[in-house]
């Protein structure tokens, strides 16, 4: 039998159906993954053809004839047959190359940069924003509202991309982010801004989650470490550059703070354009593309039946209720308040119910008794390494978010520097973190260093760097010079840890579970950061309230809680005392963060195996 060519479109493990003519010639189609490159042909392996020949010699079942229709005498008639994927080797995966990859990469880079920038850009502009709309007491909710939805939707978007398509969900997330960025810039009140920030965080969550989903399919496994290093560098660069830009934009006062959000409009529009044209959608076996038909099929009744609605709701409820309790306890409500107690109880119930429900959904799926797919398959956590990865990601997130937000705030409240100077104070952290991610990619991909070794080094550096911040002076004029060195150590630790965990994930789980695993690792990391931000805020507020009452009147304390610049209306002696109280509160935060990074170091030790996993 002659060997014929087939058009193979798709990533690893994506087999299509083969069809053979009456003369014995066979053609095969492969379904396109959402990030595959169309129009690339490969020679069919001889083993595949032999399998088809063997299959043709067997009589076709009657059910197959009824399903496909009767054969005609024409030798060109097509008879579809099924080939067992387990016995037939997959053709080599196809990857996007050349200028198309660069254009797609630009769209991905812009999307990730802008969505990550919004996480921290408000840290140095909170004072200017809340001064303009009169809401300093609720300042942390501008950050927390974004992080709540960012945290809650990471796994959800990853799972929905399996059901509704990666391109569809990516464009939807980017559109939501861009629209609500514009609305944030137009907000007139603090409550209005917080609501818009929550929706903005939802879109940003989808952007990051979908980038983690499509990244493994864009490049070969041996270069995945370098690709993740680039992505993590963009993430870290935007995270640390955010406070600098926020300070520069908001320092001029007036309405300039609105550009903290409005700058996403042109960038988001450009990214939407690039991704629409260069991120491929599903393509049929004939090689024709119809995005409208693709959308209708993706959002069909059958697709919706696969959605784990209850699991999604329970996961969101757990994230929102937990962060709300941690943010409000000790500031607006005492810990013993019925509001806080009830919120924590319902958060606990939601979390436990989510675990039980996901177990039931996964069990029904294995028994073929349901079409729902679990939002997060609990079976992934059965292995020690996978569970340790999740725990390590959680504890890495604790210091990362809190440090980036608290250092600029400390600089303004304690050292009396401008918002732009406070942002520039993060420059060592901004430079060292991307350098560490690039170094991690080089070591794992080119030098074949086991990822777990790099993660351990990163965890040790985090403990040292965060621990040194506890020694910062409580009285000083200007930004402390030693803090620059502490930031370099912390930046190296964050950079080595964040990116390398994602590289290790690809070595631990199979391709089928990789999207939800990437989303889960990111979700628990951001959840750790969100929880730490709430706890740190509680620590500071609980320290400030009794201490400030000894120095100033309740009216003056309330004025400072609404507008930090009100400190300048007090006498020099009062100002010095208040700044000392703020410094003591921030040092208490750092002690808490050191304890959490120490736990992260312990969980990273559980990643050690007798034979360490390597990229090659």
Automatic annotation (TrEMBL):
Provide the membrane topology annotation.
Multi-pass membrane protein
Keyword annotations of the record:
Membrane, Transmembrane, Transmembrane helix
Which Pfam families does the record associate with it? MFS_1
Query: What terms describe the molecular function in GO for this protein?
Result: transmembrane transporter activity
Specify the Major facilitator superfamily (MFS) profile domain's residue ranges. 104-612
Q: In what ranges is there compositional bias, type Basic and acidic residues?
A: 41-57
TM region(s), chain numbering:
101-121, 141-158, 170-188, 194-215, 227-249, 261-286, 307-326, 338-360, 381-405, 425-443, 455-476, 488-509, 521-540, 591-608
Can you say where in the cell this protein is located? Membrane
Q: Is the Transmembrane helix keyword given for this protein?
A: yes
Q: Which segments carry the region annotation Disordered? A: 1-23, 37-71
Q: Name one GO cellular component term.
A: plasma membrane
Name the major location.
Answer: membrane
Write down the PANTHER family for this protein, in alphabetical order.
MAJOR FACILITATOR SUPERFAMILY (PTHR23501), MULTIDRUG TRANSPORTER, PUTATIVE (AFU_ORTHOLOGUE AFUA_6G03040)-RELATED (PTHR23501:SF43)
This chain belongs to the protein called Major facilitator superfamily (MFS) profile domain-containing protein
């Amino acid at each position: 039998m002659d060997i014929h060519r087939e058009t193979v479109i798709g990533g690893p493990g994506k087999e299509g159906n083969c069809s053979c003519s009456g003369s014995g010639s066979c053609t095969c189609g492969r379904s396109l993954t959402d990030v595959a490159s169309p129009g690339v042909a490969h020679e069919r392996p001889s083993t595949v053809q032999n399998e088809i020949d063997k299959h043709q010699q067997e009589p076709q079942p009657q059910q197959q004839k009824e399903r496909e229709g009767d054969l005609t005498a024409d030798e060109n008639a097509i008879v579809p047959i099924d080939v067992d994927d387990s016995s037939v080797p997959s053709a080599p995966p196809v990857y996007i190359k050349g200028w198309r990859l660069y254009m797609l990469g630009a769209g991905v880079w812009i999307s990730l940069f802008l969505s990550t920038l919004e996480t921290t850009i408000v840290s140095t502009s909170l004072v200017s924003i809340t001064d303009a709309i009169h809401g300093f007491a609720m300042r942390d909710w501008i950050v927390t509202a974004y992080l709540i939805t960012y945290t809650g939707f990471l796994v959800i978007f990853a799972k929905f991309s399996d059901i509704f398509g990666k391109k569809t969900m990516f464009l939807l997330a980017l559109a939501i982010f861009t629209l609500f960025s514009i609305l944030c810039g137009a907000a007139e009140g603090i409550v209005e801004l917080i609501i818009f920030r929550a929706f903005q965080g939802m879109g940003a969550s989808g952007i990051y989650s979908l980038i983690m989903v499509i990244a493994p399919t864009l490049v070969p496994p041996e270069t995945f470490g370098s690709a993740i290093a680039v992505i993590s560098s963009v993430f870290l660069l935007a995270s640390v550059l955010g406070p600098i830009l926020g300070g520069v934009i908001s320092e001029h006062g007036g309405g300039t703070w609105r550009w903290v959000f409005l700058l996403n409009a042109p960038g988001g529009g450009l990214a939407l354009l690039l991704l629409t044209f260069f991120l491929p959608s599903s393509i049929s076996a004939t090689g024709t593309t119809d995005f409208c038909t693709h959308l209708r099929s993706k959002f069909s009744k059958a697709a919706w039946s696969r959605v784990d609605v209850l699991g999604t709701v329970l996961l969101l409820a757990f994230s929102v209720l937990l962060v709300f309790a941690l943010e409000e306890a000790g500031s607006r409500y005492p810990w013993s308040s019925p509001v806080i107690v009830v919120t924590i109880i319902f958060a606990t119930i939601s979390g436990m119910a989510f675990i039980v429900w996901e177990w039931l959904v996964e069990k029904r799926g294995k028994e073929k008794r349901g079409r729902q797919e679990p939002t997060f398959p609990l079976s992934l956590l059965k292995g020690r390494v996978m569970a340790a990865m999740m725990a390590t990601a959680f504890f890495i997130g604790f210091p990362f978010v809190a440090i980036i937000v608290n250092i600029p705030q400390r600089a303004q409240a304690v050292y009396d520097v401008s918002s732009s100077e406070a942002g520039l104070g993060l420059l060592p952290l901004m430079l060292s973190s991307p350098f560490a991610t690039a170094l991690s990619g080089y070591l794992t991909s080119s030098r074949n260093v086991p990822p777990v070794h790099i993660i351990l080094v990163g965890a040790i550096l985090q403990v040292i760097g965060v621990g040194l911040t506890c020694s910062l002076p409580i009285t000083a004029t200007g930004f402390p010079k030693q803090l620059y060195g502490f930031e370099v150590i912390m930046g190296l630790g964050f950079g080595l840890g964040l990116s390398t965990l994602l590289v290790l994930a690809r070595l631990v789980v199979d391709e089928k579970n990789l999207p939800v695993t990437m989303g889960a690792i990111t979700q628990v990391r951001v959840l750790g950061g969100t929880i730490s931000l709430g706890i740190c805020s509680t620590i500071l507020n609980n320290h400030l309230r009794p201490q400030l009452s000894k120095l100033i009147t309740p009216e003056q304390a309330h004025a400072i809680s609404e507008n930090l610049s009100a400190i300048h209306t007090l006498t020099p002696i009062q100002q010095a005392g208040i700044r000392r109280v703020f410094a003591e509160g921030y040092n208490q935060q750092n002690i808490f963060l050191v304890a959490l990074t120490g736990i992260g170091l312990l969980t990273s030790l559980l990643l050690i195996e007798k034979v360490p996993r390597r990229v090659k």
